[in-house]
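An example makes the point: we let one protein speak, the chain in one-letter code, the fold tokenised, and here it is:
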Amino acid sequence: MMNVTEEAERIRQSQGGVSCLRDEPGVYRVWMPKGDAPGLAVSRAIGDHCVWDVISNEEAVEIVCSTDDREKSAKRLVQCAMRAWRSKKRGIAMDDISAICLFFHPKLFQEVNPFKASK
């Protein structure tokens, strides 16, 4: 794992910036060179919010496993998260939502998928 200080220095040497907003202390953002808009909070950008705010791990597994076409499972998970957000978080602005589904044992997944009926 890369040291945070070393990574911040690497970004600065590439003319980028690393800093926190006043209202988000401790949330370091990567800023583009000469950027005046808030940068990306990279540590929060992967697996931190939105989907997991409204869908449990078990629900996510069920959604992914019950999708017939594995290539469409991430899109379906995002769609389900968006629907859940709208119903559970009314009036709260929705974060950007993205998902990546990894299948480490695809053959095993197809054979023992508990969410699909046997044919």
